[in-house]
Amino acid sequence: MMRFLLLALVLALPAHAQDAAAVLDTYRDQVERPSRTTIAPVIEALATSGDPAAATVLAAWADRRLAVMDDGTFVIMDGDALSDLAGQPVEGEAQPLRPNAGVRGLIASALVPFQLTDPDPAARGAARDAIARNPAPEHLPAIRGALARAADPSLSRLERLLTLRFDPDPAARVAAIESFGADQSMDLRAALNPLLATTRVATLGPPEGNVAREIPVSELGREGAYDLLVSAGLAPARLTRDAAQAALVANIADGQVAGIAVASLNTQAARDDAYSALEAAGTVPPAATEDEVDAALDSATFADVYAEPNADVTDAARAALNGIATRVGAMQAADLALDALSLASIYFLAAIGLAITFGVMRVINMAHGEFIMMGAYTGYAVQQVVPDYTLSLVVALPLAFLVTFAAGVALERLVIRHLYKRPLETLLATFGVSIMLQQLAKNIFGTQARPLTAPDWLSGSLVINDLVQVSMIRVAIFVLALLFLGLYLFIMRRTRLGLEVRAVQQNPTMAASMGISPGRINMLAFGLGSGIAGIAGVAIGLFAQVTSELGQQYIVQSFMTVVVGGVGSIFGTLAGAALIGFLQKGIEWLNPSNTLAAQTYMILFIIIFIQFRPRGIIALKGRAAGD
Amino acid sequence: MRRSTVIFIAALAVFVAVITVMAGAGMISTSFVKTLGMTLCLCLAAVAMDLVWGYAGILSLGHMAFFALGGYMIGMWLMYARTEAIVIEALSGQPLPATPEEIRQGIGNQIFGVIGTSDIPWVWGFAHSLPLQLLLVVLVPGVLAGLFAWLAFRSRVTGVYLSILTQAGTLALALHLFQNDSGLRGNNGLSGLQNLPGVSASQDATSLWLFWASALALAAGYLLAAWVVGGKFGSVIRAIRDDEQRVRFLGYPVEGFKLFVFTLTAVIAAIAGALYYPQAGIINPAEMMPIASIYLAVWVAIGGRGRLYGAVIGAAVVSLLSSWFTGGRAPSIPLGFYTIDWVDWWQVLLGLVFVLVTLLAPRGIGGLFK
Question: How many structural domains are present in chain B?
Fold first, then answer.
């Protein structure tokens, strides 16, 4: 009895008058056999005890380092060494307590306010993150306490985020919302959005609470509006089709329902008639008629009501979110433009080889996609030999060029050379080469996708803000595309080879009589175009899966790029790639769930576009246009 | 009538008679009869391809899309009618007779449950009726081909550009059908087409019927094509193939001729497809990817362009050889250090043969008969 009184006395004492040891003693039973449901008051008492050691004790407890000695004293274990709660070493044997995961979670959240003032910045950061992930009103005093001791910008931001959600004073919340100004980060939106959560209600009088807006019946539709009334308990449920059918089935007698033959009940109208007949006979309860539904809908009001009762807060939150939405829209447009730019670079890179073989030489090479694939597999093969990813890339780029240059020269010498007068047959012969190369790649490398791993410095993203970021690979492809544009222009306009290529393309006979060997020039130009395809393959392999079908995914788009841009003009190819890239991303943006549709509409657009500019965006004129 | 046409029709009749007798005697399996029937349909598509490419010089890389479209059109009726029968059968056990809405709901659930909806899309609006759907077999590919050809030819897209454009158009159509909201079950395609609704005969019998129908269609298509290329019309389209500008300057409406040939061949291909897929049993959008149309061109080129029997020979030989080699029945060739397994190497051989035929024998196998 005496002991019980004493316990009561201890419980009644103000919390801060206790030290941690006393608290643990008081709740000995719960501490030694803790469960998630009963432990909360103990943790609360410890956390608010005011004992400077409370945080250490809680941390030790959560780490399963809190132990009980044989005489019942609580001690903290550190390896084999024991110390009492105040930190003085003690001698003896102790059994550690083993709180389960649920209990440890509760202890961890009680520890957060202590960690906010931890001298270690990493611990403070972790505590901030913990609160940001799981904000709760209880955290607000702890954060403010920590802020009062030391100014910390990111903690102050967190304080405002919690204030706008949990502060009891609406004015403080509005002030907190407005303090963010032009901020548009994810966490602010995540904090603001719950403030504008609404529920849809149906009432007979004017709606109560903080009404977002009233909804006309026409917007809900008759069915939807009446369902709301029914679920609010303001109107009787309508007769569903299933219920009516069940009632009819229940009243079948001698192959008839209410005197109507069952066999004739094969339309909904006949079934409705039968149900009305049953109603008239009083066998089934009457269902709500259309007039009753109309009357009920007329007398009711439908509205969206904010869960948040204070209108000032919701107004401020809506204004802030609208502002954010505008800025986010602008950012997304910028992000989309960057996406489109990188897609355009990929198409340009895939098509630039074709700009030489198809654009300048007018040879339609269906195996061009397979040269891209060969380049990608070269990159993969080099990575098997050279383990350093950066070095292997440095080796792979020129090697891919050499491999596909050789393949291109071989193709030109063995096949295409004989078919310059028969362009359609070039298409078919190179298609034969294409299926050969694809199957050979399958036989050598297998059917599963092979990884071509980007080096670390290419694997990150260029982050501009929450919404706008580009992966480094795409930046690299953009740079590579620019480089190749420059290289192409240099070769075609500033070198002897370019001059001769242009001469042979415009008039082979005349070029030949000037001492240029058309055969040699065609061979070199074709090899050059194929070699560029190989390098493009390495670049594409870095972000796409390397399979034997890799080239097939780009071949149609590549030809489209060249045709739309205008055959024979590198700037046309550039414009074509930009048009196709931006168009595809634009259509994807209109219908984000469906990239297939984007490709479909893009191709349709191109077919129609060619109606108006059959020679592409940049059409060559005069003698250079050929035919 | 030319001698080659007579020989061809006679050979086809003998072939059909022999197969019918052998199938009746149980000497060949039902699945082989189906394979032969399907091959005849491919031959018909090749005749169409030969007409548009070998005679008119338009290398279309999209005729297998019309072939598949024809298959889709007949497949919609086959699937709908069969599902309707199943649903009515299932609902007949209920105490109340089924309403039309309930039957529709049941059909929608059966056919479109796989893409997560039970609404019947508008494109299935005529699927309940065989005559209407048969009309669509001709109309849909015909209108589509006509529209495409009108757009392409009036802006003077010719040669390889036209080939690329047909390829892109085919790709767009295939990608469209790959989407679930195209209304044709996305990449699931249509299945169960081998069961003819309302026919209780066994597969043995129906496969033979479809074989006869395919042979009949091939004979009719061949005769039509032979008639078209035999007269003055044939001379004009061959002239267009050889020098389009000159024909235009002679006053012929070149675009009209090309439009007619393109559309006619698209319709022939569609009819071939409508006979092919009930024998194949399943159709999905992968069947109309551009690669299929390129293979069609390959067959015609190997068989010999500009000769109708060449196209038939090419399609029959290459498609039968393909299924023999890729079916794993061809014996592997051990080389000691490496074994050539034809499942892996057939494509390489085909590609090589194709390059060689283009280079060395532009007239194809059919050229050997000359």
Answer: 1
